[in-house]
Predict the structure.
Amino acid sequence: MVLKLLGLGFRYLLRRPYTRLYPYKEPPFTTERTRARHLLYMDRCIGCRACQLACPADAIKMYKIEGEWPKNRLKIFPGVDYSRCTYCGLCVEACPTSALVMTDYTMEHLITEDKSTTLYTPEMLAEPPKGEHRVTFTKDLLKPPPQPPPKKGGGG
Amino acid sequence: MRKLQVFLGPQHPGAPGNVAFLLTLDGERILDVDLIPGFLHRGFEKMMEYRRWDMDLVMSARICVEDPDHVELSYTHAMDQIFGVDPPERAKYARTIVAEFSRLASHLLWMMHFAGPVAARYATSWAIAAREEVLKWFDYVAGHRIYHHYIYPGGVRWNLPKDLKERTLQVLDRVEGLVRDMERGFFLHPVFQRRARDVGRLKASDAVRLGATGPVLRGSGVAHDIRKALKYDAYGMVDFEIPKGEYGDAYDRAMVRLREMYVSIGIIRQAVQQIPEEGPYRWRLPMALPPGEGVGRVESARGEFMTHIVSTTEKPGGRPLEPYRIKFRGPTMAHLTTVLKHIVHNEEITVADFPVVVGSLDPCPPDIDR
Amino acid sequence: MKGADTGRRIEVEVEPSQLRERLRRALEEGYDHFIGINVVDYPRAGVMEVYYFVESVQRGGELLVVKLRVPRENPALDSVSDIYPLAEYQEIEGHEFFGLDFRGNGSLRKWILDENWEGPPPLRKDVDTRKFVLETYYGGQRYERPKQEKSLQEVVE
């Protein structure tokens, strides 16, 4: 029994560690569906506030940006407060024009020492993240779009 | 005899998370135990009354951190009843798979919490390694590691990936290998057997009377499982057994959880084979909540989880978007109050045994506080 | 029941005076597993609805819901903690969150809310917890973000 257990323990001694050598050797683990920092396509945004109303954490507020925005008559765009955001993705689902998407640029990259810099204004969101990233969560993930449930014919 | 009162607080390494106990001691022996909850009270039930039903789903996952999908599942079941929809076939299987993976992750985390106080540090790291595999699977399907928000009223949030079957079977093989090692290296280890045998006995009749659910109830020899009893989602279509213990001590409860891990792996293997390839994954639901009432009961990793949602048109202003009242009933309250008191009153439990007893009940204090 | 079958249940409505008798009969009928108590507050009708959820292990998880209404002004009803032990703690919850008075339960006190909340029972519908917290604990001041260098004109909601 003891020898068997020693053998078992020894096998684990020779294994590669499960921990990732973040941040110096390896980036954080992400997949094709990881939800993390947003990306805002300002030319698509129509300023409808659907994302603001869908946010459970009140992280999104609308800000006025001066400029030529043919689609956005009110000139308002969402800005995300990352000290509140829970990365649930309801804002992306709510967006009617797919202007807001999420990348896999995880919160590990967004770590900051200065609390006052966690608010990302629309211009900051429109700029792609500096590091390596891919656009992961768009409305394409919801394809085919959900249909209304079929009417049930008696007995459920 | 001098009685001593000791506060076993939330920061004590032997305490199971955000909860404290007031122990009344006579020397080493615990005479009485009082639960002191409230360290994690966030007022979710009230917050949810202010928010839309789809936002409430995101909040509901936070009620039990270790097993979020079952809270979402019970919330979703209650919502499905209010909307009067039956989820599509593919979503039923997807829910089953996700819920079983959540149970697996939760049991592995329990394993880590439990092996620590028993001083088997190696088992702790093996459990976390196995859990890491499960969390990576969650990241791959649901997009996040801990809070997935994948189970959604009307189905699941988005479609399953195309290579689900191969990838899932791969993950399961790796997890199963680690669990088998844990069984040999920890559960069947004579030191652990001596530590946990005959500690914290609970008779079957008492377990039912005191309101114990889940592995605690099954460890006492009562084969009661909501998955089997109500056959919700795809549980009616897969074949599985209910593991149960014999004596109802800490060791039996631990073994029930170990065997449940194998059962979960078996259920996922079957569900991945049976899941229909095509078909809708979710029904689109209206924004406004129809008046009604829903009760969602699921077998979470710790026991029965119930969500009771009442939706009315009581509030003036037309169609309600927010539910009128949501009540969550977690399994932990019964385990840490009535069951723990019963064990301590009827058995000589010393302070050194206390973490073993509490650990074997697998508490998740957030679902007391909510 | 429509929808998923986890909501299958038998609902019984009783008068507050019959509660103990009804639950004792339920225990004899085999509903041996107490699950919980839920309270729903209806300020306009002036009542609170109290739901008792009891399950039967012998009958494969059948759920019995005993429902009753108590007046909001004087919300008192009998404790059932001697019939179902777990009810003692669920009643404490009903007491601290809704101000219900369970006659015969000796341990009614602030339990989850102890040292966290000094005020009216928070889950009552006419208590606006957000306003109360703002006035009592934050002195009327909302939490503001620290000033950011890039100042923007925020759209007023």
User: Anything to note?
Assistant: The longest strand of chain C covers residues 33-42.
